[in-house]
Amino acid sequence: MKIGILTSGGDCPGLNAVIRGAVLKGIKVHGQEFVGFRDGWRGVVEGDIMELPRHSVRGISKQGGTILGTSRTNPFDNGGGPEKIKENLDRLGIDAVIAIGGEGTLAAAKRLTDAGLKIVGVPKTVDNDLDATDYTFGFDTAVQIATEAIDRLRTTGESHHRCMIAEVMGRNVGWIALHAGMASGAHAILIPEQQVSIEQIAEWVTEAHERGRAPLVVVAEGFMPGHMEAPHSERGLDTFGRPRLGGIGQQLEPELERRTGLETRATVLGHIQRGGVPSAFDRVLATRLGMAAIDAVVDRRWGTMVSLNGTDVEHVDFDHALGQIKSVPQHRYDEAAILFG
Ligand code: F6P
Predict the structure, then answer these.
(1) How far, in Å, is the centroid of ligand 1 from the Cα of 258?
(2) pLDDT category, 78, cuts 50, 70, 90?
(3) 3-state SS assignment for residue 98
(4) Does the beta carbon of 11 sit less than 6 angstroms from any atom of ligand 1?
(5) Fewer CB under 10 Å: which end of the chain, C or N?
(6) pLDDT tens for each residue of 171-222
(7) What is the DSSP string of 192-246?
(8) Which residue minimizes the CA distance to atom 13 of ligand 1?
């Protein structure tokens, strides 16, 4: 059996560990053959592949990025679609596809599976917003990177008696902000799920300052203060037509400075959170998910993705995974909010 693997959407530490886990298990246990599609769905639509023999995955689980390349190509655009893809797979002798990606990738995989293609999914997102899996690989690494960066912002904030704002990723959900904010002892954590007024944020900042602390605010890029109706976006749309976010920290900076009288500095951590070596947790999770994807292929579970349930890896239908995003629940925010101010 010949299996094609693709990585699609924003990259994420741990992608290479998934590829390695799948290729090694497939070759060692089932004698399968592997190819990689270059740059996500683009490689599938254009039939652009690379061989993935055993030696090609040697030592890659600790490497950031993806050896296959990625893109935000929609497989239904530019002459794609199920007929074209089926024709390519038949011509290349590929029997099944493992698609590693986030919501957009898995939604496309579902449409293609509904049209008769043999695809299994592996969930991927640093934002950790995919439902039906407890954690996605890459999230732990992003939180670690954000926490280290915020710890550094904290010491310079303390030296200058300033308020520091750290903006982290999190388009629809605030998991990175919540975890990095809790880990670094933030005085306010602002997430897309919770609209908070500027007055309230200024109050938390002032309280922390009055106790002699250098106030620290951690904000997710998708956060909307009380007066805003959509997340801050000034960079147009991405290739999926979604607004490119980023910059809410800089929007808050003068507002908080004016209301609190405290010198304030904002830093956007941006793509640093997605780069570099994956944490040990993410390497293990990604390797296990890659191996479980092979089980899904062998069992012909088309239209399913592998998922983490507690410490067990399971298989769930795309439908179940795509129904809704995994938001920060109210009780997790309330728990963190006890420590604000
Ligand atoms: O979906 C993951 C994510 O990192 C979001 O948090 C962020 O909004 C987006 O990707 C950035 O995407 P790009 O790499 O296209 O700038």
Answers:
(1) 31
(2) confident
(3) strand
(4) no
(5) N
(6) 999 999 999 999 999 999 999 999 999 999 999 999 999 999 999 999 999 9
(7) TT--B-HHHHHHHHHHHHHTT---EEEEETT--BTT-SS----S-B-TTSPBP--
(8) 10
Residue 1 has pLDDT above 80, yes or no: yes
Name the residue of 7, 171, 221 whose CB sits within 8 Å of the most ligand 1 atoms, as the mutation to test its pocket: 171
pLDDT digits (tens, 9 = 90+) for 284-302: 999 999 999 999 999 999 9
Nearest residue (CA) to ligand 1, atom 8: 171
Q: Tell the residue nearest (CA) to atom 16 of ligand 1.
A: 244
- The residues annotated as belonging to the active site are 127
Q: Which residues pair with 190 in a beta bridge?
A: 219
Q: Which residues contact 2 (CB under 8 A, 6 or more apart)?
A: 32, 33, 34, 35, 92, 93, 94, 95
Give the integer Cα–Cα distance in Å for 104 and 125: 11
Q: Is the pLDDT of residue 227 over 90?
A: no
Give, for ligand 1, the residue of 71, 74, 103, 127 to mutate: max count of ligand atoms closer than 8 Å to Cβ: 127
Using left for φ > 0, alpha for ψ between -120 and 50, and beta otherwise, residue 48 falls in beta
Residue 239 pLDDT grade (very low, low, confident, very high; cuts 50, 70, 90): confident
Q: Set out the domains of the chain in order of their start, with CATH numbers.
A: 2-137+278-321 (3.40.50.450), 140-275 (3.40.50.460)
Q: Give the pLDDT of residue 321.
A: 86
Q: Ligand 1 atom closest to Cα of 169?
A: 6
